[in-house]
Amino acid sequence: MSATYLKSVLVILLTFASSVPHANSQTKRGNPDPCPDTKTYTGKYRNLVYGFSIIIPAGLQGHWNSARCVPDEKYGCVCMGDHGRFIPLSDDANIEAFVSYQMESEWSVIDQEKGEISSLKRQQGIEQEKVLSSRWFRLGKLNARRFRVQFVEKNRRIVMDHIVALHKGVAYELILRTLAKRYQKDKMEFEKVIASWKLTPRTG
């Protein structure tokens, strides 16, 4: 799991959202579907609460990228909130679309970038961290920061390509995490997700 994903647990505890149909636009309404954290998703994904959408590339599947849901006798399934999608590329590589309320409301997007890098460096088992690049970027209509970090974890050289944008108190993130030797190949799928990312009306 990435540092960003672990951070979501704190956000979820502070901001209890709602049941699954309200948060997850890919869940079929009126059907006895299983909890969304047990399903796989393809095609367009839209987050109604935080207001963004992506298209999961053809041939790939998305998974629930939030805390696990809890079965409930009355509602069938209760979830703390939909924070995005986790898209595996291989056993060693994945793309994350993640969203949460800003942890620090006064932070700029540059502060957010620095916080993410600092959080990575504090993770146990992470060594030889090196920022390969850091620049301004456009994520849909939003000004964003895009930075690449290389590090060693479990004797493997990893590259993380991370995009973060802030808008009306919400932090929107896209993250590619892969082996350094796979980066150029996996970047092609990441670029497809980036190109599909759109800000959408929030209904939550």
Mind explaining what this structure looks like?
This protein has 204 residues and is α+β, with helices and mostly antiparallel strands. It has helices spanning 3-14, 20-23, 109-122, 183-196, and strands at 43-47, 52-56, 63-64, 70-72, 76-78, 84-90, 93-101, 126-139, 142-153, 156-167, 170-179, 198-199. The chain has a single domain (3-199), classed as Mog1/PsbP, alpha/beta/alpha sandwich (Protein Transport Mog1p, Chain A, 3-Layer(aba) Sandwich). The chain is built from four helices and twelve strands; from the N terminus they run ααβββββββαββββαβ.
- CATH homologous superfamily label: Mog1/PsbP, alpha/beta/alpha sandwich
CATH architecture: 3-Layer(aba) Sandwich
Provide the β-strand percentage band: 35-45%
What's the CATH topology name?
Answer: Protein Transport Mog1p, Chain A
The major β-sheet equals: 7 strands, antiparallel
**Residues in helix, %:** 10-25%
Q: What structural class do helix, strand and pairing data support?
A: alpha+beta
